[in-house]
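Structure ticket #2291
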Amino acid sequence: MDKLELEKDLAQQIKESLEVPLYWRLPRMEARNFINIYQRDENKKLALLELAKLDFNLLQSVYLQELTELAEWWKGLKMKDKLPFARDRMLECYFWAMGTVPDPKFSKCRRNLTKYGSIATLLDDVYDTYGSMDELHKYTTAVKRWDLEAIVELPEYMNVCYKAMYNHVNEMVEDALNTHGLDILPYIKDQWMCYVQSLHVGAEWYYGGYMPTTLEEYFKNSWISIGIPPSLAYVFLAMLEDSNSLNQCELQLFEQWSSSDLFYLPSLITRLLDDLTTSNVEMERGETTNSIQCYMIQEGVSEEEARDHIKDLICDSMKKFNKLVAHSSLPTGFAETALAMVRCVQRMYQFGDWFGVQSKANKISSLSKIYKYRYDDIMRDGWSALQVKWDLY
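Resolution: structure written out below.
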């Protein structure tokens, strides 16, 4: 490696380190970035480099297979045709799941997490931008009943959402029961009910023209409506399946999740990141309820001052969460996976509203920076565009 190449590689590493501190980074993503640099190093260990490339290739094969299956599932639901107003975010949800639980053994968890995120995003759009208050009340009631017969009272577009949610959950519950003897329905059903109820509260605020006057009031609902608690429950339950049982500590976590910082802090951080990135777009749509506006009302400050305060809250919350992870009495994988989920969310929002605004140019840039894939290649060549192979020799 000549001096110029060395300086360019070092400069790039320094630039990325300044953009994102170490504790925000995703190990798998960093390994992918470092392979390019390491293979140009004159002092590299060839065996180590070959193992790194082999690991990358094997993972790519696993991810490609999962995406192929998920694409067929999503295509079969025909959501683009039945709910044209809603965001189509299956691909983004998979990348989020992949960043949260990247290990091959969590293949089933990644698929379930992607399905949850895709359906939850549809419901978020139904409650935020499309459904009338009367329709939303019927849907919320139907979810609380948790009975497929409840769809007779719903409009057709809501039937589609309800069936997708209900069938997905039942499929996952049946698999856990048959494979591991675990009945996870009470925990998963509770998460979906609380998520939908929080969306309902947000809709009531919007249609009633109500704005929470304090951050505390806003956070009581918005930390749940951001959708992170159910995703954490999905991941934690997947980690418990191999044990075929829940011990007292783990059982308490699921029964008292609403008062657990392991659920609250990742959700709060995600909510704050989302508000910082999406607030201007949402205000253009008439949605004014977010942490920035609430703090402006609470303290009588400017938008710039409110944004600075929200950034400080994110940093403080991340410090608390790091401390919680370091001293958690729960199995190591629980806390570390929750941390990985937060890191993944942060990286997704680092380059703008990558999840909320479906702009091709935005996605090409973001996917290239975050995952080193080109979004236009994926759209043109299909999922095979993700199968990037390293030459081992």
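Closing remark: The CA atoms of residues 122 and 297 lie 30 Å apart.
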